Amino acid sequence: MLSINKSIEYALIAMRHINEHGQGKLCTSKEIATSYNIPKEILAKTMQKLCKVGYLNTIKGSHGGYFLNKKLNNISLIDFIESLEGPIGVVKCTSNLDCNIIDMCTIKSPITKINNNIRKVLSDVSLHEITT
Length: 132
What we know:
Elements: H1 6-20, H2 29-36, H3 40-52, E1 56-59, E2 65-68, H4 77-85, H5 108-123, H6 127-130
Antiparallel strand pairs: 1-2
Helix pairs in contact: 1-3, 2-3
C-alpha cells in the first residue's frame, strides 16, 4: 500500500491546527498533541523539524509556541513531504539510481510513469488545500 508515514501525517495535522488558529496565535506542541491524541515526544520532534526546514517558527519560553513562517498556498504537498522525508518514489530506484538491476529492469518504464503521475498529483495540491 502506498501511504504517507506518521511523521508526515502528524506534521500536516500540526500545520492545519496552527493555520486554523490564525495569525498571531501561538500553539504549543503539547496543546496539539493533546487535541489529536498524538504522542507528545514524536510531535515535538516533528515540530522541531518543521522549524528547521522553515515552515514554522517558534517563540521560546513559558508563553511561547509555534506559528506559521510561510504562506501555505505557495507550498506544494510534494515539496512539503520531500523536505521532511526525502524523495518520494513508488520504488526506491525511481528516486535513487543505486540499483543493481537498473540496466536490465523490465518494469522501469511503467513504474517511472506511475511515479511521475503520483508526483504530478502531489505537486498540484497545495498545503493550503490540505490545511483549511
